[in-house]
Design brief:
InterPro entries: ABC1_TM_dom, ABC1_TM_sf, P-loop_NTPase, Type_1_exporter
Number of strands: 11
Strand content: 5-15%
Order of helices and strands: HHHHHHHHHEHEEHEEHEEHHEHEHEE
Strand order of the largest sheet: 6-9-10-3-11
Helix content: 55-70%
Shape: elongated
Low-confidence stretches: 1-14
Protein name: ABC-type multidrug/protein/lipid transport system, ATPase
Distance between the termini: 31 Å
Main location: membrane
Membrane topology: Multi-pass membrane protein
Subcellular location: Cell membrane
Mean pLDDT: 81
Structural class: alpha/beta
Radius of gyration: 32 Å
């Protein structure tokens, strides 16, 4: 499966995510640390007052306890809210990188895997921050302050808390490895299930036509059974972690009572000590989940971190243009074109040099031709960091321009494309948002997209890969968008054949007189090629 390949590939790469301590999150982290110290101080005050209550009942002391308990509640309430803000802020940054990587990748992951990564994997990271890391950040100061309070009552009481911490640490460390492996296995099976469901739904027409609905449902069920088994296996470790994290503090309470008896402490000191231990037990009880969330986080990080690192490299290369030309200058006609392939593709096709007005047919293996045209259209030729690789227009490399400039130089309409979500007007001018809507609509109608036939004309909303447009209407929209403002380089494939017959003949005439360079693949009747780009033998 694809997700197994992508999950296995990053092993040799550093598994680092963007730093959590960053602008926009520093104040949140400082607030969480402050709340942890405040909760510790409140716990000491509450414990001392409860000790006073055990000696003599006083309305003023009882009111003070109730007030401090309310403050303790507010501190924990604020802690949870700040933790959620911190987690959501961080996950939003990761989600942005994942989506950008999926869109920039020459061979993007399947829809199911992309959804799984942006939900399951990011949820594991968010859970670690909100319910794992925050209890550590806020809980450690509370334990330290509470332990200090116990020490002042009697050193044996602090030693009881210390022994409890050591025992819990041994238990959690012993279960951490198995929890990580079970989390990795579950994540892999979830990815497989998401990919299978997405692929099955995408092929629903062929499946129904072949009478295979029950067969495919059973295959999905078989894959889901692996998820069920892996979930139960992980639950065994989670149960041991959480059960131990709750049971050991009870043992700590018993040790504290024994220490208090050994030291012959008064009842007020014992009540204070038990209150402090009870507050610490709540924090220790969360640590079982902390370890579970940490191992889930590590499993998610192992997949996400290399993708984000790759995305950052691509973004950095786009942000540091080497070309001294700008898009407006390169749009000037006539413009020669040179396509220099990176080493990974140079063995399949030679370098191409073309002059304005040429119509070049790409010939070779169908899959190689499709990959080549897609790489030219998306600018992924330069992802190999080859300083010469890319599309050169009038000797200025288009890949060295920002995406907002590069999109103006290369128009593409390929079978692998579907219109993005939004209005028809937005889709038509996607390459040139500043283009005249009237001219864009006129060009679309020339290509066969009749606005009068749409529910809301150019304001018709597109969704789910181009609905409500049919196949021919989608092709008309994509071809019109590619032709808008006559880019120096135009890339087409058999998508053109989906145009309505009358529109196809008109577009073919336009292409035969196209002033820029046209590169196409597939059988497109009516288009007169002037040269060919042959794959290497």
């Amino acid at each position: 499966m694809l997700d197994q390949k992508t999950a296995a590939a990053p092993v040799a790469q550093p598994e680092r995510l963007p730093p959590l301590v960053a602008p926009g999150r520093r104040m949140l982290l400082a607030g969480l640390l402050s709340l942890g110290v405040l909760a510790g101080l409140l716990s000491i005050a509450i414990g001392w007052l409860i000790g006073q209550l055990s000696a003599s009942l006083s309305a003023g002391t009882l009111a003070a306890v109730l007030g401090l308990v309310g403050c303790f509640f507010l501190a924990k309430y604020a802690e949870r809210v700040l933790a959620e803000k911190l987690g959501q802020h961080y996950v939003a940054q990761l989600r942005r990188g994942l989506v950008a990587h999926a869109l920039r990748s020459a061979r993007g992951p399947s829809m199911g895997i992309t959804i799984a990564r942006s939900t399951n994997d990011l949820s594991s990271i968010r859970n670690w921050i909100v319910q794992g890391m925050v209890p550590l950040v806020a809980g450690l100061p509370l334990l330290i302050v509470s332990g200090t309070g116990l020490w002042f009552l009697h050193p044996l009481l602090a030693l009881s808390l210390g022994a409890t911490l050591v025992l819990e640490g041994i238990l959690l460390a012993g279960l951490a490895g198995g929890t990580f492996l079970s989390a990795r296995a579950l994540r892999r099976h979830r990815g497989n299930l998401a990919a299978r469901i997405a692929d099955t739904v995408a092929a629903r027409t062929a499946i129904a036509a072949g009478g295979g609905i029950e067969r495919e449902v059973q295959r999905v069920q078989d894959t889901s059974q692996k998820v069920i088994d892996a979930s139960v296996h992980r639950a065994r470790f989670a149960a041991a972690l959480r059960g131990g994290a709750l049971a050991i503090p009870l043992l700590g309470t018993a040790l504290l009572v024994a220490a208090a008896a050994q030291a012959q402490l008064p009842a007020a000191a014992v009540a204070t000590a038990l209150t402090l231990m009870g507050i610490c037990a709540g924090t220790l009880g969360e640590w079982g989940r902390v370890v579970e969330y940490r191992q889930n986080y590590k499993a998610g990080r192992r997949i996400i971190a290399p993708l984000l690192a790759e995305q950052e490299r691509w973004q950095a290369s786009e942000a540091s243009p080497a070309s001294t030309r700008d898009a407006k200058e390169l749009m000037l006609q006539p413009s020669s074109v040179r396509i220099q392939l990176p080493e990974s593709m140079a063995g399949k096709f030679p370098t191409l040099r073309a002059q304005p007005g040429q119509r070049i047919a790409v010939r070779g293996n169908q899959g190689d031709c499709a990959a080549l045209l897609a790489a030219i259209a998306t600018g992924s030729l330069a992802h190999d960091a080859d300083p010469q690789a890319g599309v050169w227009i009038a000797e200025g490399r288009s890949e060295d321009l920002p995406a907002t400039g590069r999109r103006k130089l290369i128009g593409a309409a390929l079978e692998s494309m579907v219109p993005e979500r939004g209005s028809v007007a937005r889709a038509l001018r996607y390459r040139h948002p500043g283009a005249s809507l009237r001219k864009a609509v006129a060009l679309a109608e020339t290509c066969g997209l009749q606005m009068a036939h749409l529910p809301d004309a150019e304001e018709t909303r597109l969704r789910r890969g181009g609905e409500p447009l049919n196949s021919a209407q989608q092709a008309s929209l994509l071809v019109a968008r590619a032709l808008l403002r006559e880019p120096p380089l135009l890339v087409l494939d058999s998508l053109l054949a989906r145009l309505p017959d009358a529109a196809y003949a008109t577009v073919a005439e336009l292409l035969n007189d196209y002033p820029g360079v046209l590169i196409f693949s597939g059988e497109l009747p009516g288009i007169s090629e002037t040269a060919s780009w042959e794959a290497r033998a």
